[in-house]
Amino acid sequence: MAKGGQEQKQSTSTLPAWQEQAYQQGMNMAGDVSQIGYVPYYGPEVAAFSPLQEASFANTDQMAGAFGMQGTGGQQYMPQAETFAGGVQGYSSAPTYQHAVDTLAAERPAQADYLASFGIDPVTGEVGSRTFRNQPFRLEMQPKPSSGGK
Amino acid sequence: MAGSANPAMTQAAANPYTQASQAQQAAMGRVAAGMGQTAAGGIGAYQNPYEQAVVDKTLRDVGGAAQIGLNTLGAQAQQARAFGGSRHGIAEAEALKGYQQQAMDKVGALRQQGFNTALGASQADLSRQLGAAGQLAGMGQQSFGYGQAIQNQQMQQGAMQQQMMQNLINAAKEQYQGYSGAPQQGLGTLLSSVYGVSPLQGSNQTTQFNPGLFNYMQLGASMMG
To answer: Total domain count for chain B?
Structure first.
């Protein structure tokens, strides 16, 4: 150090540009993805009984009836199976799920809204108030501006 | 015998369980009825309706023979000038006694033979009916087995079809999960590649010199000198 002067050294860490860019884009993308919210499945989940199985059930009824025992009397236990695209016959949990969601919204609307605020509105696409981008932040670990002078 | 088959059973042939039930009920009914039944009760149906005629004919034959014998005895007694005497009377009584015994023996034998024949036939019929009831029960069991076998086959094949449908559903659902999870999948790929690489950190060191009064004086002296 020269006499009478003041020498100040400052170190800054650096990353390659491509890596810095990737970090930022990755975080941005993670933020977007985190806003998606739950994506329900509305398709079939459980296959319906086949006609042969139904016939077998009816035969069990007939067997019971032939020996004077009680059968179902033609009463159906399973709900009516739906026919989905491609002729798939089965059941979906979607109606039951939707009913549960609607019930929650009706019974505990604040909790339902709170849950919804973490994702986008699945109908309008409006971003929820508690999504990644709407979270408050304060930078505390950045280097302080250089203080030159005497 | 096809002619004596139960028409109701042949009509219900489409359902083996109905067959089985009817057969079992019929067999049980017959066996239950047979439990208190004796062969003697059915004898009347198997007795020879002409037995009495045969007996009558036999009695007439024996009676005819007796008459002939008495006539012969009378003729012999007349020749011996003993007709109507005590010896003749005794001889006739003995002859009649023999004929009566013969008639009773013959009739008894005929009656016994008729009874035994009818009893045998009744026993055989009872056994045949109970055997047929047992056979009917067995056939009912067989029908039940057919029904069970067919039903099991239906259930197995039906389950195979249902499983195929379920597989189709599972495949579609898996694709859907892939579709709806594509953003997360892409993000995961990105993050694993970005954060999987060690940060290529470098450092820049900058040196800043702030000159003091002595430095300015030194600078001025050097310029003057």
So the answer is: 1
Q: Which residue has the tokens 């005590």?
A: B86
Residue B57 domain-assigned (yes or no): yes
ipTM of the complex: 0.83
The string of pLDDT tens digits covering residues A31-44 is 999 999 999 999 99
> Which residue does chain A place closest to B181, by CA atoms?
A39
Confirm if A41 and B176 have CB atoms less than 8 A apart: yes
Q: How many helices (H) and strands (E) does chain A have?
A: 4, 4
The Cα of B54 is separated from the nearest Cα of chain A by a number of Å equal to: 53
Range of the domain at B110: 24-140
Residue B69 included in any domain: yes
Q: In terms of CA atoms, which chain B residue is nearest residue A68?
A: B21
pLDDT one-digit tens code per residue, A75-118: 989 999 999 999 999 999 999 999 999 999 999 999 999 999 99
What distance in Å separates the CA atoms of residue B117 and residue B123, rounded to the nearest whole number? 10
- How far away is chain A from the Cα of B134, in angstroms, using its nearest Cα? 18
* Angular region, A37: left φ>0, alpha ψ -120 to 50, beta rest: left
Read off the pLDDT of residues B3-37 as tens digits, 9 standing for 90 and up. 455 555 555 456 999 999 999 999 999 999 988 88
